[in-house]
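Human:
Care to share another protein and its fold?

Assistant:
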Amino acid sequence: METNFDCIPCFIRQTIEAVRFATTDENIHELVLREVLYAASKMDMKKSPPVMGQYIHRLIRKYSGSPDPYKKVKDRFNQYALELYPALKEIIENSPDKFDTAARMAIAGNIIDFGVNNKIDSTIIKKNIEKSLSEKLFGSVTHLQEAVNAAETILYIGDNTGEIVFDRLLIGQLPKGKVIYAVRGSPVINDATIADAVYTAMTDMVRVIDNGSDAPGCIIEECSSAFRQYFFDADLIIAKGQGNFETLSDVNKNIFFLLKAKCPVIARHIGCELGNAVIMGKQS
């Protein structure tokens, strides 16, 4: 997916919010903002939005001196999601269609995205979970389940912390021996890394790998050779979240994207309404 002109204001908003989140030093705020404004004026609009996101957050980590500015937030939402997990799992177990309910739960977890909204709290998450159980989905759970049943190998690419616990709910309905779960190679925003997979016990469910990249998405050419091998060998890719959609929607693979359409540009690109829960298959 290419960068849209409407992405530019979002880059600026994200820069200001993120650098203020990382440090109170206004000199650093100005320095980062000026560098991002210059970079935005020169950027290749044919690249996906996470390319600029990667640049922004590298700058913030560099000038703030913090290798993981969102660490406390990540831990807090991982812990909160773990506290919710038993009740959510029970809802799935009591559901007449466990796969459908688990898929809805996994998508509900995609609301925990500090790249889009750094005001996320427990009230927003709970309301989103309640809505997810009854809202009309854009796409087909049945098609996803058919793809899962037909696949011998499944690469499930995660997105955010907290959300990774919701992914466990869907993975519980998959043939776990066929599943590999992928996280980011190093910290960026509140995206999940190997440390988060360990913290949330994802590593106890399935094999977990990282993609070798610090982009808030999955820019294939920047990922490690080991990850690329798993990616292109997999029969089915399940990719969570907007960043993975932005970077993988043009890749020629059998991919199902699961996400909340939190951005009007992405909603237009998909053809759904803003706020829709999306399960969209893309055949190779």
User: Anything to note?
Assistant: The chain has two domains: 7-64, 71-282. The mean pLDDT is 95. Strands lie at 138-139, 154-157, 179-183, 207-210, 236-240, 255-260, 277-282. Residues 217 and 231 are 14 Å apart (CA to CA).
